[in-house]
Write a sequence for this structure.
DNA sequence: CAAATTACGGACATTTTTGTCCTTAATTAT
DNA sequence: ATAATTAAGGACAAAAATGTCCGTAATTTG
């Protein structure tokens, strides 16, 4: 559904939110290994998340790494999609029509309009923290094996 | 959500189902123009749909073109996704986890499992014919302007 | 049979996405 | 200060997706 880069971003941010704090930062290596993403590519993505919309923060040097503020943890997961420029995926007509609308619907419009808002709502109502907490409590998992 | 190629495929097949018959075939030019897709690229996609899963048929020469059998019209739209190798999009974990499952869920799994089956069901229950008929009756549209 | 029409198939080109590598900058510890 | 560590940033590379072009094959019409 999303680009690989976006999947990595979602996993990375959730992982960081679960494991890190301002005192305990996470290194690129540790993050990439945990979520099963290529290290240098992940570096680019984390950069994108620190600059721009500033979902996460970072510091350089020994004991440096990535972390996320308590404030950012309260952001909806949707914010990560926005930071990656992939929130449009959820808005588009499923057949790719530019003009698809309630008054000029594509033939799947009236079906899809029952589903699309639920998808959007999921990303809007679930916060980064809520997903991190699910992992923390052992109810779900974010680690992944490569390929 | 899907590749451009898949969007074009969906639109093209629905358009063909609405406008054509064995007696009246549609030329590549006409199809590409109607659905707002680049002509040569569309040619490749239509080829893919005639060979392989054989969703549509074609004949060469004057008055040749593309058409779809009444039998194929009864196929679910899902068959087009399969022909394009994009049905996997609907099956995947939304975070891209290889091992995401009911027993080892990603942190969005229990939310997404309420939505994903609806999406799949939409493509499985709607037939090519049913969408073509919607357009035929003027209740929806499949034509598109380029970008 | 010849000419016109139309899809087919292969090669090629461009753009986007994914991924790597290497140097630099910032920070910390010794 | 020096060295070690870590992210930042730029250049580059590979793969996939998107798109074009052109000659060929099949079919129909005259």
């Amino acid at each position: 559904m999303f680009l690989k880069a976006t999947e990595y971003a979602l996993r990375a941010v959730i992982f960081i939110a679960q494991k890190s704090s301002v005192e305990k930062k996470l290194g690129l290596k540790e993050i990439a290994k945990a979520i099963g993403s290529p290290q240098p590519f992940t570096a680019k993505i984390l950069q994108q998340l620190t600059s721009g919309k500033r979902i996460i923060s970072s510091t350089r040097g020994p004991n440096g790494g990535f972390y996320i503020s308590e404030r950012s943890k309260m952001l909806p997961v949707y914010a990560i999609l926005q930071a990656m420029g992939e929130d449009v995926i959820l808005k588009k007509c499923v057949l790719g029509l530019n003009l698809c609308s309630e008054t000029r619907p594509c033939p799947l419009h009236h079906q899809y309009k029952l589903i699309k808002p639920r998808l959007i709502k999921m990303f809007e109502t679930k916060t980064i923290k809520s997903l991190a907490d699910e992992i923390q409590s052992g109810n779900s998992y974010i680690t992944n094996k490569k390929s």
